Amino acid sequence: MRDRVRERVPVVVQTGGRRRTGARVLWVGAETVVTCGILVLLLVVHQLWWTNQQARAEAREQVSVLEREWAISPPGGEESPSAETVETVETEETELSGQEGLVSGSEGGGGVASTRPARPSGSDLPRQPAASRAFAVLRIPRLGLTAPVARGVSKRSVLDKGYVGHYPGTAGPGLPGNFALAGHRNTHGEPFRYINRLRAGDEISVRTRERTYTYRVDQVLPQTAPRDVGVIRPVPRSVVKPSYGYSTAGAYLTLTTCTPEFSSAYRLVVWAKLVSTA
User: What is the pTM of this model?
Assistant: First the structure.
């Protein structure tokens, strides 16, 4: 009997390996979560901070370039665009997603879906510069805003540079009709972030090589659909909310951007009327 007891070999169940494997899996999972969190944080910093720094710097430089050119070259050179002479701008996107027209804006750029005008006929029309080149400077004293205005509402070549975009086919500054503009509300310079603060009576100026046009804010449409094209027509009136807008011809300025902030679900519209030319 004693010999049999001595011959028995004890069986030891080892559990340490499984514990180590489980701990290793948890560690790898934690590292993955932390890494993903850092990448998301870097993306947010890039979108909300770095794109603004880049776009604002480029916009300030463009304003300086324009004002130096205007100081050197007197009025009478290249004319600002009008509804009749503006060239068709081939936008990369019919609808912007800002970042912003009633074309939508990247996380808050903003525009309205617009139709392109027919290319004007005749060979005596002035040659227009590239769509991304600014031709005017927009100033809104109440917001402390100074921004260059360029032709077109393309994200890549206009709005993402911190510029304010001029809708193709709408009137030029100071002319009868509707001088319609779009800008990002968040990211990429976000020039139109605070246009919701504008109130009736606030002044907006648009300077070109020839002269400065002063508009006075008249109406604010807090929210409308992205494809409410009525707000940028020559006599602007919302087709979604007809109680907002006008019924008689005039010289109007329209500002469009996305709303609410960090969303492109709707559009915010500000209308102003021309009050003086200097």
Answer: 0.72
